[in-house]
Structures are given as C-alpha cells and as structure tokens.
Amino acid sequence: MSPERDRAAGRGVGETGTVSAIAPALGADLPVRVAPEAAEVRVRGLVHRYPGRDGAAPLQVLDGLDLDVPAGGYVALTGPSGSGKSTLLSVLGGLEVPQGGSVVVHGTELGGAHARDLATYRRQTVGFVFQHFGLLDTLTAQENVELATMLAGVPRRRRQARAAELLADVGLAPRAGHTPLELSGGERQRVAVARALANDPALLLADEPTGNLDGASGERVVELLEGLNRDRGLTLIVVTHDPALAARAHRRLDLVAGRVVEARRAEDTRG
Ligand SMILES: Nc1ncnc2c1ncn2[C@@H]1O[C@H](COP(=O)(O)OP(=O)(O)O)[C@@H](O)[C@H]1O
Ligand SMILES: [Mg+2]
After folding, report:
1. What's the pLDDT band for 50 if we cut at 50, 70, 90?
2. Where are the alpha helices (DSSP H) in the chain?
3. Among 111, 120, 128, CA closest to 31
4. Domain locations in the chain?
C-alpha cells in the first residue's frame, strides 16, 4: 500500500496496510489488522431461522442463500418487507451468527466463528449504516465517530484527528460539535457514514440508508456511499426500497423466498 493510496483513501500514512495485507496469506483465522483492500463476499447455502413464539413453527427467513460480491462491487438488494434483507445484512455484518452454510467475507469464515472473533470482524472489517442512523443522542457528532475508533483501541489524539478528518470528508466539519438532535436527518446519516468509516472497513453495509430522508438529503448520502465505492474501492451492499437507487448499483438482486435472485430490469417488468 503506497502512501499515495493511503492518502487517497483518507488514511494517515502508515496507519494501516502493512501487516494487514499479508495476514490472510499467513493463514490466520482472522487477520490481525484488516487489509485495506475491499472485501470479497462469498455466501453458500446460508440458512437463518427465527424461533417461533409459544410453540409456533420457526420462521425460515434465509433458505439456502448463495451470494457472490466481488471486491469493490456495488450491489443493491431489494425485496418485500419481511423478506430477510436486514437479516442477511446482520449476518454479513457479523451481528448474527450464520446458522447453516458458509459465509466468507474478506477471507474470514463467519460460520462457526467464536463471538470474540466476530467482534473483531465487526470492528475491523465492516462498516454499518442503518436507516435510523444509530447515533448516540448525548454525544456530539465528533464523539459519535470517535467512539467507533475508541473501541478499536486507537489512542486519543489520533482518534480525535481521525474523527475530525472523517467528518470533514462528509462535509460536516462545521457541525462536528453538535449532537444528533441538533442536526438534520441527512446530516445525521452523514455522521453515521463517517462513523462507519472510522476503522477503514473493507465492506460497507447500508440498510435502507435513505429510508428516513427527503429526496435531496437522500441523494447526498447515496452520492457519498457511491463515492466510497468508486474512489476508494470499498465493497458496497445497499438494501433499499427505492427502485431508482437500486438501478444505480452495478448489480441488482432481489431476496425472494429466502434466496437471492437477479432482479428483473425495469424494462422487463413493464408490460
Ligand atoms: N429477532 C427476530 N426474532 C424473530 N423474528 C424476527 C427477528 N428479526 C426479524 N424477524 C422476522 O424475520 C423476517 C425477516 O425480517 P427482516 O430481515 O427484518 O426483513 P426485511 O429487512 O426484508 O424487512 C420478518 O418476518 C421478521 O418479522
Ligand atoms: Mg429491514
């Protein structure tokens, strides 16, 4: 990793990318430090069910799902409400343990991973952006972003500089000292994007990131996410209800009956 690319990727020179690039090749279960390159996602036969309440049958949400996303890919995932889109993102994000099948992200097998390893994976490999922002209302934008790096053990001075830099990247330097309640929805979501980037993720997952935003602020968030994919090469998976947003991805997939299918193009569905 060259200093030039580090800078282009918004990283301080030498912050990442030395041990990391070779760690997977050493055969470590989980890399010591995440490689700065984009993540490849390979899912085979993923099964996920939720237990039924009061003797009801379990709900089979994901049913032998296969998914391939190349490193640097940009996939939009659509599907009816309740079809399992958030469940799939939770599994890819290491928030839910795969119950069956194989899920390999950036060389890490999540199926059967220990809780501790999943926590490391969540911290080092993925960035998550949620519909409801998921920011702490009592902390400023700056502190919300810093918190993510604090959990990764980054020293205080570097943490502060990093958070300020990320907030500047998303156009929020002047708003850094404000709490979420003092920010607009679009600004909150841009803070959430900055937070998702705090630890240089290789995979960015966004669950209906524009669902709570008006057209203009949604557009700005989408452009931000797309820029991260285009300019930094981050692998991007976006769940959305919005066909216009989905159409912008490299590839559109639908979640149907617990599996992923190629989405029909708009021109196929007219008529
Ligand atoms: N923690 C949970 N416990 C039980 N059922 C759940 C849980 N999370 C989601 N579900 C159910 O699983 C199905 C898929 O949910 P979800 O992945 O959130 O769908 P989507 O994001 O596509 O709307 C829904 O029927 C939902 O009610
Ligand atoms: Mg959902």
Report:
1. very high
2. 3-8, 19-22, 85-92, 115-124, 141-151, 156-169, 185-196, 215-232, 243-246, 266-269
3. 120
4. 3-269
- Each residue of 85-112: pLDDT tens digit? 999 999 999 999 999 999 999 999 999 8
* 3-class SS of residue 135: coil
3-269 homologous superfamily: P-loop containing nucleotide triphosphate hydrolases (3.40.50.300)
Return the ligand 1 atom nearest residue 239 CA: 21
> Which residue's CA is the closest to the ligand 1 atom numbered 2?
50
Q: How far is CA 167 from CA 34, 104, 131, 164, in A?
A: 22, 31, 19, 5
Contact between 270 and 96 under an 8 Å Cβ cutoff? The reply is no
Residue 167 phi, psi (nearest 5): -65, -35
- The residue whose CB lies within 8 Å of the most ligand 1 atoms, and thus the one to mutate among 46, 59, 240, 256, is 59
- Atom nearest to 207 CA in ligand 1: 21
